[in-house]
Sequence to fold (54 residues):
Amino acid sequence: MGFDLVRFLCALLLPPVGVFLQVGFGFHFWLNIVLTLCGFVPGIAHAFWVIYTK
Fold:
């Protein structure tokens, strides 16, 4: 639970970092980069989803 808190905080500030800490350089990391570039809020939402479900 403690490390998840760090991931959620990273996801709030820099969404791709939070996703990277959860899944590494996989599909979700690159998708999150694209979503963050399209809009910061979609990147945050996707990062929270990845951290919560994996």
About this structure: The chain has one domain: 2-53. The chain has a mean pLDDT of 93.
